[in-house]
Amino acid sequence: MESLLSIENWFTLLMLILLQAVLGFDNLLYISLESKKVEPERQAYVRRVGLIGAIVLRIVLLFVILQAIAVFQEPFFTINVPGIIEGEVNLHAFIVLLGGVFILYTAIQEIFHMISISEHPEGNPKNRRSVTMAIFWIVAMNLVFSFDSILSAIALTDVFWVMATAIVITGAAMILLADHVADFLDRNRMYEVLGLFILLLVGILLVSDGGALAGLKLFGSDVLPMAKSTFYFVLFVMVAVDLVQGRYQKKLMRQRARIEKMVIEQAAIKASEEDVGADEKSKSGEETKGAQV
């Protein structure tokens, strides 16, 4: 009871909710893109079930990490190829690295799929993913994304109910926002490219974090984690460039439309003048013939 009445715990809860809200943006983006791989009528169901399952497993993961945090920090295998790659990989680093590689693969695959010329329409059943598999990947990647937020939560407090409450509240907010994010991407297809490159950036962030956690050295140089400030700055620049380019493209399209309209109007005026000239010439010819008669 004393824990519930503590102002410090409630302040920590607020901080954790804000922290997980910021860290949850990339997760929402992945969920929206992943759910689009199933039939349109099942997409909302996949997002809801995937997130509910992820919330439950996040709380389980939180409990497991609290009980056995040392297991996640102790190296369980060593990489040693002198001069090329060296490091000691623990379970935490392995999961983050694996998640980062998978997100990189997913983003690159979707980018190539977007720019490739395919004989099949986008909605072809061959390109679809089963509901079960989509839910599985949403839950799995949600756990990967949750590692940083859970470890940050443990660093801020050791009160279980505070951490669990923050997970439930942010999870419920994500359930509400996931449909809106997906609808926005459906209505604004041009932002899918931006979303995929943000996902690519998230993959790089996770790989660099995992490499740093494992103390990896590539070709004699330490793998350093991407600073969160750098990540958000690059993210801001990408969004700003996309918005400016979108507005500039619309401006160019309007200018082109005006030029085309002017060309059409001038062509119509010229054609009208030619028709008038032809009519006058025809009348003049008829009058000349009449005079001769």
Structure description:
This protein is 78% helix and 6% strand. It is mostly helical. It has 2 domains: 2-226, no CATH class; 231-293. Strand 3 and strand 4 form a beta hairpin. The chain is elongated, with a radius of gyration of 30 Å.
Question: How do the strands and helices of this protein lay out in sequence?
Answer:
Elements lengths: L1 H4 L1 H17 L1 H11 L7 H25 L1 H5 L1 E7 L3 E6 H25 L15 H26 L3 H28 L3 H23 L3 E2 L2 E2 L5 H65 L1
Antiparallel strand pairs: 1-2, 2-3, 3-4
Helix pairs in contact: 2-7, 2-8, 3-7, 3-8, 3-9, 4-7, 4-8, 6-7, 6-9, 9-10
Query: For the terminal residues, how far apart are their CA atoms?
Result: 120 Å
Relative helix content:
over 70%
Shape: elongated
Radius of gyration: 30 Å
The domain tally reads: 2
Order of SSEs: HHHHHEEHHHHEEH
The biggest sheet amounts to: 4 strands, antiparallel
User: Given the structure, what is the number of helices?
Assistant: 10
Strand order of the largest sheet: 1-2-3-4
What's the average pLDDT? 75
Strand content: 5-15%
Unreliable stretches covering 5 or more consecutive residues = 119-123
Count of beta strands: 4
Alpha-beta content class: mainly alpha
Keywords for this entry:
2 domains; single chain; elongated; 6% strand; mainly alpha; 293 residues; four-stranded antiparallel sheet
